[in-house]
Amino acid sequence: MDQSRTKKEALEKLFDPKEFLKMYYSFDSTSSEKNDILMFLLRNFFKTFILDGVKGNTLIHIGAVPSIFELLSACESFKEIVITNYMDRNCQELQKWLKKEPGAFNWTPVVKYVCELEGDRNKWAEKEEKLRRTVKQVLECDVTKFNPLTFASLPPADCLLMCHCLVGICNDLSTYRAALKNVSSLLKPGGHLLMVTTMKCSHFVVGQHKFPCLFLEKEVLEEAVKEAGYDILKFEVTPICYPDSLVEHEEISYLVASKGKGKED
């Protein structure tokens, strides 16, 4: 059986979106590794989208977990956001928050922190509604396929955003490189790629289940991004790590790159 298919079936069966969000994104003002990592990422997204002016008509978010924190500053800079995810269960969880359904995860503490970065903590309710309005579609996306969006056709986007995505899906480096090229077909030449990666990671834990990850070092990641047709504009690494009980890894990286204008897919 195809390894990528086997891995997807295992994730669909064992990965619990609610448990994941509770374990990784229950955010408060206390200092902890989880909070510090989230704040590191939120500050970087704020800088990229608000201060550095990465903007456009459409942003496509490619995910493997049911998170929306990475889009809170992006919704100020893009007219439309399309959320895609590797798992149908995650798509359902994301729709719960977008539709304000009972049992949806409470992202408000995170939203308030982003609003504070942007200058007004009290505008959190407006921020939540703006993001909900800006998200136009939630689609399933299989990054291991040459056409990741099998059942949808989208015009090329101005920005692709991936957060903790490919290392949890790809079994080996050749699959990772191919997946990066597959998703790049969704991006305009000259568009931006934003990628958050759990570096040198062996596995992550959700509930009682341990999920293997692809072990990536900085040089290998940079080489794969360049090979996919990108010019790296920023590569920042934080040594802050999740507790070993959650993730066995060494760093978290934040990368911004631009797709070469002469490099069509």
What does this structure look like?
With 265 residues, the protein is of the alpha/beta class. The protein has helices at residues 3-14, 17-25, 33-51, 88-98, 108-118, 124-134, 166-169, 173-184, 218-227; strands spanning 56-63, 78-85, 135-140, 157-163, 187-199, 203-206, 209-212, 230-238, 247-248, 251-259. A hairpin with a 2-residue loop joins β6 and β7 (209-212). α5 crosses α6. The longest helix has 19 residues, at 33-51.
What is the CA-atom radius of gyration, in angstroms? 17 Å
Span between termini: 29 Å
Total DSSP E strands: 10
User: What class do helices, strands and sheet pairing give?
Assistant: alpha/beta
Measured by DSSP, the beta-strand proportion falls in: 25-35%
Rounded mean pLDDT score: 93
Describe the strand arrangement of the main beta sheet, using strand numbers: 3-2-1-4-5-10-8
| Portion in helices | 25-40%
For the biggest sheet, the summary is: 7 strands, mixed
Give the SSE string.
Answer: HHHEEHHHEEHHEEEHEEE
Principal-axis shape equals: globular
Query: Uncertain spans, ≥5 residues at pLDDT below 50?
Result: none
> What is the tally of helical segments?
9
Characteristic key phrases:
alpha/beta; 9 helices; 10 strands; seven-stranded mixed sheet; 265 residues; single chain
Please outline what is shown here.
The protein has 265 residues and is an alpha/beta fold.
Question: How would the blueprint of this fold be written?
Answer:
Elements: H1 3-14, H2 17-25, H3 33-51, E1 56-63, E2 78-85, H4 88-98, H5 108-118, H6 124-134, E3 135-140, E4 157-163, H7 166-169, H8 173-184, E5 187-199, E6 203-206, E7 209-212, H9 218-227, E8 230-238, E9 247-248, E10 251-259
Helix pairs in contact: 3-5, 5-6
